[in-house]
Amino acid sequence: MRALLVFVLGLVGCGGVSFQANTLPSNAVTASGLASIVQLTAVSDGNGTLINVTVVTLTQAGAAQTFTFCGTQSSLFPMNQTIRVSFVPAENCGNIVVVARF
Predict the structure, then answer these.
(1) Of 8-22, 52-66, 85-99, which range is least confident?
(2) How far apart are CA 96 and CA 11, in angstroms?
(3) Distance between CA 9 and CA 48 in Å, rounded?
(4) For the chain, which domains are there?
(5) Please, what is the Cα angle at 65 between 63 and 71, to 5 degrees?
(6) Closest by alpha carbon to 24, among 81, 71, 85?
(7) 0.85 cut: is pTM over it?
(8) Tell me: the pLDDT tens digits for 25-54?
């Protein structure tokens, strides 16, 4: 696969940290698939404060997985494009480390 675009993000306000694409934290999770649903919404942080999150459904080989990422990240997930995302899971939303589009 060839990468068209790689983003290395530090998520300000979500506790994220920038990493080089070949250096992921040990607790990072990687998922890939076709971006079939992308929507911005808000969830409670558990203390009564709403935080913006981006909900993304990736489909691959007929199976769909839905992920919730901290912040407004919809521009990283163009519809009908194959995406590989590495993120650190957290209670309310995952902190994106790297997104690659193929």
Answers:
(1) 8-22
(2) 7
(3) 27
(4) 5-101 (2.40.50)
(5) 155
(6) 85
(7) no
(8) 999 999 999 999 999 999 999 899 999 999
